[in-house]
Each structure stands twice: as C-alpha cells, then as structure tokens.
Specification:
The chain is an alpha+beta fold. The protein contains seven helices and five strands. It has a five-stranded mixed β-sheet. It is globular.
Length: 203
C-alpha cells in the first residue's frame, strides 16, 4: 500500500473513531457498531473496510472524556459506581460482579450499569427484587462465550439510585468463565463488591 494512501486511510479511521466516540457520548448510543455506522454516514464513508475497530473507538472516547468532559464525566462515573455498589449490596447473595463501561471508566452519562449475577434459578433473583419492592423487567441476552460460541441468558432491568441497572443472570458455575468483551474480544473484566468499593475510595 502506498504510504500516502496508508496515511489517508489511517487519518480517516481516526476521524471515524473520533466521530463515533462523539456520537456515543452526545447521543447515549452504547452499541459500537451502530455508532460507527452513524459516523460513517456523517462523514460520507461507504467502505466498511475503513470502519475503526471497537478498541479504537473506546480509546477515542477515553481521550474525549479526558480532554473535554473531565469534571462532568468524573461526577457521573462516581454516581454510576455508587449506584452499582448499592445494587450489588441489595443482591449480594447472587455474587454480583460489575462489568462493562462503568467498571472500565468509559461510561457516558447515558450508559446502563451492567452486572453479572449468578443463580441456578434465575427466578430467585426476581423474587428477591419483588421482596424489596424493586420494579423490574425481564428479557434475554445473547452472550459471546468464546470465539465460536454464543449463548442466551436471562437478564433483568431495574433502577437503583435513579440509575438503570442491566443484569445478566448466569448459572452458578458461570462465575468461573467470563464472556468475551464486545470491545476487545477478550474475557470481560469482572469486579466484586470489594473492588467497586475500592474504586470509589480511590477516585
């Protein structure tokens, strides 16, 4: 590939990543593919081979938050992590783990708080929420477990501290294998209650 063409391609990919990051931040879009497609439409790019990888968009989002949204992002992230900790304490018997952008620090003000819960009977979690008077909805989530396997698991949505929680319910032995991250394709990082508390204490 000629050097000038390569430089133009790299520059365009960076522009697409930056625009996708802006869209995720400003419009509350959490889906990387949707954000990059909107960015491509905005910049008039039709070649899908030029679309940035999710990790490139995440890095652009980190940079944007650091340069342009530092104070507001820090406040919002702390609120999200406090809400996550509250939800995790309410559901402590189900070994909750915080995952996703609220854990990694790239959450926007619109991001859901993503938890993993573990129970042999998913309905035991819904019963617990009913006992403590938490309104919730039940849906299903497709989760990529490895390079060639995706599974469907029940998931719950409910609010805590005016923040939306989206919790995927795995069987008890699911705690031993984290699913793949949609950002980098590696096993997702999971944080327990103590780790989330430590994050808040050092922020």
């Amino acid at each position: 590939m000629p050097r000038k063409f390569s430089q133009r391609t790299d520059s365009l990919r960076r522009s697409l990543a930056e625009e996708a990051a802006r869209i995720m931040s400003d419009q509350g879009i959490g889906d990387f593919l949707r954000a990059k497609r909107k960015a491509a439409d905005r910049l008039g790019v039709t070649d899908s081979a030029l679309l940035p990888r999710n990790v490139e968009i995440e890095e652009a989002l980190r940079l944007r938050q650091r340069l342009f949204e530092a104070d507001s992002h820090d406040r919002s992230l702390k609120e999200q992590r406090r809400a996550a900790l509250e939800a995790m304490r309410l559901l402590d018997e189900f070994q909750p783990r915080l995952v996703g952008s609220v854990l990694t620090g790239t959450a926007t003000a619109y991001s859901d708080i993503n938890l993993h819960l573990f129970a042999d009977r998913p309905e035991s979690i819904t019963l617990r929420l009913l006992e403590i008077g938490v309104t919730h909805s039940v849906h299903e989530r497709r989760v990529k477990m490895d390079a060639g396997r995706s599974l469907h698991y029940p998931a719950l949505r409910f609010a805590t501290c005016a923040r939306m929680i989206d919790a995927t319910v795995f069987p008890l032995d699911g705690i031993r294998q984290a699913p793949y991250s949609p950002v980098d394709g590696r096993p997702m990082r999971r944080a327990d209650t103590h780790e989330v508390h430590a994050l808040l204490a050092t922020a």
